[in-house]
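JOB MANIFEST
job_type = single_chain_structure
chain_count = 1
residues = 164
[input]
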Amino acid sequence: MSGSTTGARDDHGSEGAGRGTADRGTADRGSAGRTATGGGAASGWTVFAGVMMIFGGAMAIFEGIAAIAEDDLFVSTRNYVFQFSLTGWGWIHLILGIVVVVAGFAVFSGALWARGVGVVLAGLLALANFMWLPYYPFWSLILIAINVFVIWALCAGPQKGVRA
């Protein structure tokens, strides 16, 4: 009888140990899941927004370099509401593009501040491309659309309710 009692205790002890191990494994998986979707790493639309910010910022850098280097490369409309120097717009696009690329890399961290900064910078870049319409209309419309998608993706953020 003492053998059965000891055996029962051993079984109970092994079940308890098994449950403790299983519970700890579940807790570890749960905390890893929270890290992946919460604040530790970017996922889903946040990654999309980061990639599009880097792309849009790089295109703004190229626009800026082209406007600074060759003033006669772009054709401007005379009777447009906003009259600015093309070289001045080149410097604005260059600086704003560099800042957007850096912010795009920061968005990959998944930090809330990076998403907020990304929304503000994507809005500024969309506004700059709107004012850039008379110089390069088709490309400006494409970059405005990309920046609108970036703002939407950053505001959508990580989806906490989705489980794998």
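[summary]
The two ends are 47 Å apart (CA to CA).
Residues 2-37 form the longest helix (36 residues).
exit_status = 0
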